[in-house]
Amino acid sequence: MKKILVLATLALALPFHAYADDTAPWEGTYKPVKGKYEIYGGSLHEQTAPGRNDSKVAFRVEGTAAKEMFDAMAPDEKRKCTDAAGYRERRKDNLFCTYETDSGYNCYFGFDLRTGKSIGGASC
């Protein structure tokens, strides 16, 4: 009886072992980021000097980090900011990423520094 129980346990475990992920465990480490930021007041379209009650920050992430973000945001937008050849665009709420053949990958996002709320970091 014990042999049957052991064989049954092995038979049930075998399919799970076949689907086990043999890759190295994911390492959630911070990586360097290439980018720029701007602190401003007003809106993206009509920026003013930041003030005590009106300060926002817009970030632009470039290069490898932007490519990884872009790849994770599929699919491409059907309605894009431009019809330029090779231009691709992806949007998720206040996160906006683009690919252009001449400038590569770029992602834009921002925060209202008075409220901490997410805001857009770029517009068309």
Automatic annotation (TrEMBL):
What is the protein named?
DUF3617 domain-containing protein
Q: Does the keyword Signal apply?
A: yes
Superkingdom, taxonomy of origin: Bacteria
What keywords are assigned to this protein? Signal
Q: Which residues form the signal peptide?
A: 1-20
Source organism of this protein record? Massilia violaceinigra
